[in-house]
Amino acid sequence: MTTVDLPVVVGADGSEGSLAAVEWAARQAVRFRLPLRIVHASRWERYEGPDELVPGQVLATAEQRARQRCPDLEVHGVAVPDDAVSALVDQSRQAAALVTGASGRGAVKELLLGSVVLAVAGRSHCPVTVVRGDERNVWGASWPVVVGVGEGGEGIAAVRFALREAAARGCEVQAVRAWRAPQQVVGPLSVLDDTARAFEEQARAVLDEVLGAVQSEYPQVTVRRTVLEGPPHRVLQWPSADAGLLVLGAGGRHGHRGLQLGRVCHTALHRAACPVTVVPHS
């Protein structure tokens, strides 16, 4: 299977959140001319009680929603007898992209971001999109793609993904770099101004370096460069309010269960006003 043959994979559990993710993933698959694979994972379907949906029902409903959104799309459904995190991470090995909803079914659905989405985003082998935010952002294909620009390979991977996405959507990219002057800096006002200006210029230099490495690959995409003062996990919430997608490098640190997502990704996955894509370095 070549890269262009790899499907868009979306997790489905029967919830409205997952069905919205299925519809979003279907449109994404059409946009990039890829097949769609819908995955339902559960170890407990025999024990969940009469009010729970069985895998066949979950997949049938999800496939129907995908075909209603995109009638000509190639859609396949698969039930996996495993926990959701393990199943989706395994599927990500042979996926062009992985998509999940921001909430699930049952009494603990509000904890899903802690138990499933964060774990999948940290361990996935391909970009992961969490479909969240206002409906106008979720379906606003012409709205800008906002990318938080990190340094080095992580920043380049995220920017390349954002440019590719914007080229497919026909929209612009807003490349954002946050900066902060050290709080311990003290002195006359002129010295403080010079210090702040230096940190702002450093942020602009990072934007220039990272964008310079990949922007020529997508010359048709307009890129708007923005530097914002403040903690990255906070300032990225502002542009997400008028975005169709927020793209971030995975960042974080590696542990025995894979990458532990950093504060920027963690906050965005909980609070962004639009869908969020986390892009692994590799």
UniProtKB/TrEMBL annotation:
- Looking at the Swiss-Prot or TrEMBL record, what is one Pfam family this protein matches? Usp
Q: UspA domain: which residues?
A: 8-132, 145-280
> InterPro entries this protein is in?
Rossmann-like_a/b/a_fold, Universal_stress_UspA, UspA
Q: Which family does it belong to?
A: Belongs to the universal stress protein A family.
Protein name per its UniProtKB record: Nucleotide-binding universal stress UspA family protein
The record lists the organism as Streptomyces olivoverticillatus
